[in-house]
From TrEMBL, chain B:
Domain of life: Bacteria
Keywords: Oxidoreductase
Occurrences of domain BFD-like [2Fe-2S]-binding (ranges): 402-453
Domain FAD dependent oxidoreductase residue range list: 12-362
Pfam families cross-referenced by the UniProt entry: DAO, Fer2_BFD
Alphabetical list of Gene3D superfamilies matching this protein: BFD-like [2Fe-2S]-binding domain (1.10.10.1100), D-Amino Acid Oxidase, subunit A, domain 2 (3.30.9.10), FAD/NAD(P)-binding domain (3.50.50.60)
Protein name per the record: NAD(P)/FAD-dependent oxidoreductase
GO MF annotation: an example: oxidoreductase activity
Native source species: Acidisoma cellulosilyticum
InterPro entries referenced in this protein's UniProt entry, alphabetically: BFD-like_2Fe2S-bd_dom (IPR007419), BFD-like_2Fe2S-bd_dom_sf (IPR041854), FAD-dep_OxRdtase (IPR006076), FAD/NAD-bd_sf (IPR036188), G3P_Oxidase/Oxidoreductase (IPR052745)
UniProt entry tagged with the keyword Manganese: no
Length: 409, 469
């Protein structure tokens, strides 16, 4: 026998919990959050630093207190959070396969919201060369060592990458006696914004821009890395006892890859319309599963917004998914989200198209349908920065087929 | 561990090296009542050549006809199938397709089929491109033809030797780890092996030191008869989502030097491409190199175009204990009560049980069995089954928590791997016993939890300190 509920939410991060709260507020009865971890809250649970919660709760919080607050609010309003519940398969008709310590379960929900977040790219998928000793970690793992297990994995790592999360990693290291040996970034300029990029230098950590790690050395543990400038020039070895791989986020979409849902190769997450609806309209998705990577606050608001769409859908008030326009990332764009627009209903759903570039570029951002330009503006864009286009600014009436987003240089 | 204990007890047989070959040999001797001690220098077993291979149970269809290698493969293959259920060892009856992509390769198929017949593998048969594609619809349509090798299967490269050694222990064998044989003296009756942890006395010594076989011969002062020339093989493992794209092992038409690059499912539900064949002097470090990994990925995508969208889960490299000879280097130095089982280059996972039979036969020319094999003990507690096509631990209640989410490894499995007669000796050993951390996130989610669950267990711990300290 299988359980039948109104809404199942996979993942108890900011997106999943804010959606759950919103759904309960709208009067939905059985809102069940399935969380594979032993505690609710998602990634903020191990981001021990501020700033979290400014817009949501009107004050600056650390990650763990933010996660706690979300989980408390959700439980207080009657959300059922089922911990140690790992969803192992997404099936048609809203049926979920779940592993629990008490045995396998199947559950059917009228709607499912996928909110499984992002992770970082590990060493293997970066095809990093060299030995494979202990001490090569992502930031998420480092944070979990320190914040969740109270353990230290290394004392003198090199840090790869200069996205924001790398600065967060430096902060984590410095407050626990870990002294990074270097920060290394392949690009000629750091990814994060000035003045944050000054932090490593202020802390006396050498920064190598335009350099790649060409080998990791070590028998049991990391002993050194070899650096080479990306123009093929000089190489040098840096002694270290760890390699911290930061950023290069990607959606935790393994469930989607293995399912009947359409995955967008550009975002590596599920393809959705502006209501967060997946290719199987019983499934919705919100939060960083949609794209790498946004903040907790963004994910929180997105969860809320898509929860309202989901509720509207249950009330039969969402436009049919069948009549939708495709949007594709064209020249100089890495991704566009949502991937489909269904005859826009202005009040509901995502209000903006989100775009990202893979490389820094200056030019004109354009949306076109065939030869007809729907939107155009000058743009200078950098990787990992938000590029937004208000959906309301587009006149989509009577359009079918595909819209291409591109940057003309 | 107390060094006097080892020196006081004289063993019948000391096996140097707990690679797959040493594990199989220890088992074979223990089954017939010999007092066996296994000496392994690493923190855990399978730390040498046996750590990274393609995990194919070969039929020997393309082995040198009539060679000892071929004999051992045939015998090893047969014994594996015979004992695997009793030892709880998984098997994926994948079959293999030897695929030809060029006219030149096509022209070799007849010859290969003829050799297979000669080698006693008589179910090998040609397949037309349409037949290949009917079996493997995702393969590139540029294929010209192939041979079906129905008996090539996939096994678990780590649980298998572990199970051999478990059975050896159940039958009285002792296993010493972090114990390196530094030198040896034969006094005409027995050997005294000096190790970093004291002396071990044994009547007969078996050198199964794999990548260090020649060095161990030197240390025993018996005169080496081969030099190990490590031959590296790099691999790329694709995401589990790719597994649905392929069911058979896709073998290339072999060249003189190597079996070539294989694209194969794994018993763990991944897809694997590799290995390369790169000679090197270093016996310890098996590095991966980005340019080579990229070539492997390109190769895999050429064979299976749908791989283009599949993420990479893991990369690794293994070292083959190659010599100047393709043949296994097995010799019995009866004057010194020594048997060397070395140079087991690229078929040792398959051949191990057969090598063990062969080595036991050499030994038994002088030493009768102490007890019939029928009295041997079969372990009652099965090892955890890590094969994706069988019921994994997480499907059964009471597992506590899932620690590694990508590979669905449970706390119960981790705890089991840390206890028993042969607990994991280091983090790699734990991975090999459980797969924890071997999935697509490579420890992003579980590394810290594993560090915590293994605190105080390993000489080289995952965590080097704690936050309070
Ligand atoms: C290392 C790292 C550091 C970051 N630092 C910051 C920061 O400092 N500030 C910031 O604003 N943002 C940060 N982020 C971005 C972060 O993704 C967002 O803050 C936010 O957590 C996204 O919320 P979410 O709900 O989409 O996903 P998450 O918070 O990632 O939550 C996803 C939840 O889904 C669960 N889950 C996944 N798969 C399953 C399954 N199959 N079954 C059941 N449960 C499942 C997970 O256990 C997790 O609890 C960071 C991200 C990472 C990875
Ligand atoms: C890339 C690759 C792919 C392969 N694919 C396959 C395949 O698909 N099918 C197949 O059948 N075979 C395959 N093989 C071959 C197989 O892996 C090897 O033949 C086998 O592992 C050799 O095992 P071994 O026990 O002889 O050596 P090893 O595994 O090297 O074992 C020797 C052990 O001795 C220990 N040792 C060394 N010196 C000392 C000392 N002084 N004191 C104590 N201990 C010592 C070492 O630490 C080591 O653990 C492959 C091999 C490679 C590298």
């Amino acid at each position: 026998m299988r359980e039948m509920i109104d809404v199942a939410i996979i993942g108890s991060g900011p997106a999943g919990l804010s959606a759950a709260i919103a759904l309960r507020k709208r009067g939905l009865r059985q809102v069940v959050v399935l969380e594979r971890d032993s505690e609710a809250g998602g990634v903020p649970r191990h981001c021990a630093h501020p700033p979290y919660g400014l817009r949501e709760f009107g004050r600056i919080m650390t990650g763990p207190s933010y996660a706690q607050r979300l989980a408390d609010d959700a439980r207080a309003i009657g959300v059922q959070i089922r911990l140690l519940h790992s969803v192992t398969q997404l099936l048609p008709d809203g049926v979920l396969e779940i592993a629990t310590p008490n045995g396998r379960q199947r559950l059917q929900a009228k709607r499912v919201l996928i909110a499984t977040g992002v992770r970082e790219t590990p060493r293997s998928a970066r095809l990093l060369s060299g030995d494979r000793p202990l001490g090569v970690l992502n930031t998420g793992a480092l944070q979990a060592y320190i914040a969740l297990q109270g353990l230290i994995p290394f004392r003198r790592p090199v840090i790869l990458g200069s996205e924001l999360v790398s600065l967060s990693a430096i902060a984590t290291c410095r407050s626990h006696g870990i002294r990074p040996a270097a920060v290394i970034e392949t690009n000629a300029r750091p990814t994060a914004r000035f003045p944050l990029t000054l932090l490593p230098r202020l802390l006396g950590i050498p920064v190598f821009l335009g350099c790649a790690v060409t080998a990791i050395h070590g028998t049991d543990r990391v002993e050194a890395v070899t650096l080479q400038s990306t123009d093929g020039g000089t190489t040098r070895d840096i002694a270290c006892d760890g390699v911290l791989l930061t950023g290069r986020f990607l959606p935790e979409a393994s469930l989607i890859r293995a399912s009947h849902l359409t995955l967008d190769p550009a975002t590596q997450g599920p393809a959705i319309d502006q209501f967060g609806r997946c290719s199987d309209p019983r499934y919705f998705a919100a939060g960083n599963i949609l794209r790498a990577v946004e903040t907790a606050g963004w994910s929180f608001r997105e969860g809320q917004r898509i929860a309202h769409c989901l509720a509207a859908d249950l009330e039969g008030r969402l436009p049919s998914a069948s009549a939708s326009l495709e949007i594709r990332a064209g020249d100089n764009l890495k991704l566009v989200l949502p991937q489909r627009l269904t005859s826009p209903s202005k009040a509901l759903g995502k209000q903006t198209l989100e775009l990202r570039v893979a490389q820094g570029v200056t030019g004109r951002l354009r949306l076109r349908h065939g030869d007809v330009t729907l939107y155009e503006r000058p743009l200078t864009a950098l990787p990992e920065r938000r590029i937004l286009i208000p959906i309301g600014a587009l006149d989509l009436a009577n359009l079918t087929g595909t819209i291409v987003a591109e940057i003309l240089t | 561990m107390n060094s006097h204990l080892h020196s006081a007890d004289r063993q019948d047989v000391a096996v140097i090296g707990a690679g797959v070959v040493g594990c199989a040999i220890a088992r074979r001797f223990a089954l017939t009542g010999a007092r066996v001690i296994v000496i392994e220098k690493a923190a855990d077993i399978l730390a040498g050549a046996s750590k990274g291979n393609s995990a194919i149970l070969h039929t020997g269809f393309d082995a040198p006809s009539g060679s000892l290698e071929w004999q051992c493969m045939q015998a090893g293959y047969a014994e594996f199938l015979d004992i695997r259920e009793r030892l709880g060892l998984p098997l994926l009856r994948s079959t293999a397709i030897l695929a030809a992509w060029t006219e030149d390769e096509m022209s070799k198929l007849d010859q290969i089929a003829a050799k297979a017949w000669k080698n006693g593998v008589t179910d090998v048969r040609p397949l037309s491109p349409a037949e290949v594609l009917a079996r493997e619809p995702h393969l590139s349509r540029t294929l010209l033809g192939g041979l079906l090798v129905p008996g090539e299967f996939l096994i678990d490269p780590w649980s298998t030797p572990l199970a051999y050694l478990h059975q050896a222990i159940a039958n009285g064998a002792t296993v010493l780890r972090e114990t390196e044989v530094l030198s040896g003296r034969f006094d005409g009756q027995a050997w005294t092996l000096e190790t970093n942890r004291g002396a071990v006395l044994a009547e007969t010594v078996i050198n199964a030191a794999g990548l260090w076989g020649d060095v161990v011969d030197d240390r025993l002062q018996v005169g080496r008869t081969f030099d190990i020339r490590p031959r590296k093989g790099q691999f790329v493992v694709f995401d589990k989502a790719a597994a649905r794209l392929l069911s058979a092992i896709i073998l290339p038409v072999p060249t003189e030097r190597t079996k070539g690059i294989v694209l194969t499912p794994t018993i763990f539900g991944n897809l694997l491409v590799g290995p390369t064949a790169e000679e090197q002097a270093d016996r310890i470090h098996a590095t991966v190199e980005q340019a080579t990994l990229e070539q492997l990925i390109a190769k895999a995508q050429a064979i299976l175009p749908a791989l283009a969208d599949m993420p990479v889960t893991a990369t690794y490299a293994g070292l083959r204990p190659a010599t100047a000879h393709s043949e296994y280097q097995i010799r019995h130095d009866a004057a010194h009560n020594l048997i060397v089982a070395g140079g087991i280059r690229s078929t040792g996972l398959t051949g191990a049980l057969g090598i063990a039979q062969h080595v036991a036969k050499l030994y038994n020319e002088r030493h009768p069995h102490k007890r019939p094999e029928s009295n041997a003990i079969w372990p009652t507690v099965a090892l955890p089954v890590l094969a994706e096509h069988e019921a994994r631990d997480w499907t059964r209640p009471g597992y506590g928590e899932i620690v590694c989410h990508c590979e669905l490894v449970t706390k119960r499995e981790i705890e089991a791997a840390l206890t028993g007669p042969l607990p994991a000796g280091d983090s790699s050993g734990l991975k090999r016993r459980t797969r924890a951390g071997m999935g697509r996130c490579q420890g992003f989610y579980c590394h810290a939890r594993i560090a915590s669950l293994t605190q105080g267990r390993f000489t080289t711990p995952l965590a080097i300190g704690s936050v309070d300290a």
